[in-house]
């Protein structure tokens, strides 16, 4: 009997164990199910948050309805299309861009059995960077998915359905670029803008005839006019701008209307085009580089307009408001105070700039006029030039092509372009020789004939000169521009002494000027031959200097041996003047340059101006493929008043062969210099 009870107890234990196992399995399964379900829900909620904010960031508003619950849209009084339209209208209206999502956080709300969503948005609007906006929402289950419960306050915090977002702007005025007397070189001016109203063109043959007449009157191809009229925003009664009229009076004709607009205007236009530059409408690339720019803005595209653009442009003001049309309540979302652009005052004299350009018009060349005592750049002229007002008004592709196809390169700023300086450089060779003791003012060199070479090792290469003078000293050599004399002086100095002297003229150094200009160079890779040393000494060889660099290098002759640094903006500080030579050396060379004008045989004799002691040096630089050949000649003129050195002129004309050589430069520049004394 005892054995049987033990068996019954064993069966009972087994059954209990089985029940426990089953219960535990059920509990475990349920737990696993709920844990897995929660993980899945959390994953879906996070995906909803990520999709919703990413579509806002990318401004994919057409996809937003996939991310929000239908119930929330209905309770907010919006359809999916209305929500999409609302976002587009608001974001486009304030030019929202560069949108970034930050602080994204999704947490489960156990009490409400949904998820809480929090995030921030950063963006740039037409008024600049908007302060970080913080958002809160919920994520709920709908149709076996989790989506954001949408409300208008997810456009901007605090918004309700009847709210609108409005932008008011207060556009900053672009600052002027002025000359030293305050006269405008780049100004803002009210002008007439011609436009077409499609309704006024008529129909059929009348329209065709009117378009042809407009094309002829405004020099715009009919195809270009039709392209403007076919833009998506154009309606029958829309004013479609076709041309800004900076000069002349409006022409009355069928289909054409006029509006008054403010635009950038350049009083000197071609005379200062390379220096002042022009403005133009921003491109997509410009906006990508500078997030503060907006479509329709105008910025500097060339010259000083571009270099000083930030200071000239200033900062637009304005407000972005959330406005409730029912309550008239306004909430300021963003506000900026307008700051007009700064006026940039230059050292340029607009009258001298214009007179100098007029003198060079028709030639390929340049002129730099500098005050040799303080470095003020008085005129920087390059010819040929281009019409900056035409660039602002909207140059046609045909007219622009005329400029780009012009072999004389009208866009090239020649005053900042390097050339071989030619015989004007002999002044520096003389100064270097005087300083190191090689050159003596009265030391005579006996030279026979018009050709000379050091020895037979030079082969067929000879240094040539114009005048056969048997006995030549330094003064004679400068007065008559004797190449052979200076070639021999350079060889007597030797490469080391010569180059050491040239270092005092800042070869290889950059000037602090608001435009690009390669440093002056003595040679490509060192003076490694006697021929190159001789050629360099009289201003040829591999020497390269821009007209500005030449003018600066020659200032010591007018300034007691001190070389000043160029200055273009009145308020700028430049480096202190540099002692490039002694006052005695400077005055010795200056005396010779005065004689180059006063003596009948002097190369600059035609530059005499009654009552004034003009110091001058002319020069030509020959461009040729190899030694012994003839090539294109550039003519140069260096000139200043030896008694009252408040100006120094360095002018250059390309291709003076057979046209009077450097005498042509004197002919062009003498009237300009004479005007200084009137």
UniProtKB/TrEMBL annotation:
Segments passing through the bilayer: 12-35
A Gene Ontology term for the protein's cellular component: plasma membrane
Any single Pfam family the record assigns to this protein: PBP_dimer
Single GO term (MF): peptidoglycan L,D-transpeptidase activity
Species this chain originates from: Listeria weihenstephanensis
Protein's cellular compartments: Membrane
Domain Penicillin-binding protein dimerisation: 170-329
Limits of the NTF2-like N-terminal transpeptidase domain: 45-162
Keywords: Membrane, Transmembrane, Transmembrane helix
Main location: membrane
GO BP terms: cell wall organization; response to antibiotic
Protein name per the record: Penicillin-binding protein
Protein family (similarity comment): Belongs to the transpeptidase family.
Ranges for domain Penicillin-binding protein transpeptidase: 365-673
């Amino acid at each position: 009997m005892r054995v049987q009870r033990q068996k019954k107890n064993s069966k009972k234990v087994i059954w209990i164990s089985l029940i426990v196992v089953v219960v535990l399995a059920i509990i475990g399964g349920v737990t696993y199910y709920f844990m897995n379900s929660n993980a899945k829900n959390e994953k879906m909620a996070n995906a909803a948050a990520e999709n919703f904010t990413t579509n806002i960031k990318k401004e994919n508003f057409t996809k937003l309805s996939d991310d929000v619950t239908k119930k929330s849209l209905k309770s907010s009084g919006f359809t999916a299309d209305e929500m999409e339209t609302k976002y587009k209208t608001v974001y486009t209206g304030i030019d929202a861009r560069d949108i970034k999502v930050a602080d994204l956080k999704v947490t489960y709300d156990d009490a409400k059995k949904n998820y809480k969503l929090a995030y921030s948005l950063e963006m740039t609007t037409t008024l600049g960077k908007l302060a970080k906006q913080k958002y809160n929402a919920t994520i709920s289950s709908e149709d076996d998915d989790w989506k954001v419960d949408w409300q208008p306050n997810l456009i901007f915090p605090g918004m309700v359905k009847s709210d609108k977002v409005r932008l008011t702007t207060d556009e900053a005025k672009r600052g002027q670029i002025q000359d030293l007397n305050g006269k405008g070189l780049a100004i803002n001016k009210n002008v007439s803008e011609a436009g077409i109203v499609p309704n006024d063109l008529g129909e059929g043959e009348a329209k065709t005839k009117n378009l042809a007449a407009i094309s002829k009157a405004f020099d715009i191809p009919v195809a270009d006019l039709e392209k403007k009229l076919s833009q998506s925003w154009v309606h029958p009664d829309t004013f479609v701008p076709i041309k800004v009229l900076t000069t002349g009076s409006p022409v009355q004709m069928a289909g054409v209307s006029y509006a008054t607009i403010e635009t950038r205007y350049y009083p000197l236009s071609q005379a200062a085009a390379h220096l002042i530059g022009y403005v133009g409408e921003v491109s997509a690339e410009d906006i990508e580089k500078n997030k503060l720019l907006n479509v329709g803005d105008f910025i500097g595209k060339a010259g000083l307009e571009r270099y000083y653009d930030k200071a000239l442009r200033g900062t637009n003001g304005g407000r972005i408001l959330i406005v409730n049309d029912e309550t008239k309540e306004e909430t300021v979302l963003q506000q900026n105070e307008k700051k007009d652009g700064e006026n940039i005052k230059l050292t340029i004299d607009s009258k001298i700039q214009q007179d100098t350009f007029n003198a060079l018009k028709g030639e390929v060349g340049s002129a730099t006029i500098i005050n040799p005592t303080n470095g003020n750049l008085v005129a920087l002229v390059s010819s040929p030039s281009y019409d900056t007002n035409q660039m602002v008004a909207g140059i046609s592709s045909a007219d622009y092509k005329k400029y780009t196809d012009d072999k004389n390169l009208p866009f090239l700023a020649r005053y900042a372009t390097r050339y071989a300086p030619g015989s004007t450089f002999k002044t520096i060779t003389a100064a270097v020789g005087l300083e190191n003791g090689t050159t003596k003012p009265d030391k005579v060199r006996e030279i026979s004939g018009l050709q000379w070479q050091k020895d037979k090792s030079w082969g067929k290469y000879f240094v040539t000169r114009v005048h056969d003078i048997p006995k030549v000293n330094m003064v004679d050599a400068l007065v008559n521009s004797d190449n052979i004399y200076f070639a021999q002086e350079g060889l007597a100095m030797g490469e080391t002494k010569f180059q050491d002297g040239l270092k005092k003229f800042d070869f290889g150094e950059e000037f602090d000027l608001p435009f690009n200009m390669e440093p002056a160079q003595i040679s490509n890779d060192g003076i490694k031959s006697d021929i190159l040393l001789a050629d360099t000494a009289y201003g040829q060889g591999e020497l390269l200097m821009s007209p500005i660099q030449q003018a600066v290098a020659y200032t010591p002759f007018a300034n007691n041996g001190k070389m000043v640094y160029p200055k273009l903006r009145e308020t700028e500080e430049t480096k202190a003047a540099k002692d490039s030579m002694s006052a005695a050396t400077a005055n010795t060379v200056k005396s010779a340059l005065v004689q180059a004008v006063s003596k009948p045989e002097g190369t600059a004799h035609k530059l005499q101006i009654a009552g004034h002691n003009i110091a001058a040096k002319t020069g030509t630089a020959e461009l040729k493929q190899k030694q012994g050949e003839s090539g294109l000649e550039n003519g140069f003129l260096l000139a200043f008043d030896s008694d009252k050195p408040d100006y120094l002129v360095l002018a250059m004309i390309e291709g003076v062969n057979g046209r009077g050589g450097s005498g042509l430069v004197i002919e062009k520049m003498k009237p300009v210099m004479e005007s200084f004394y009137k």
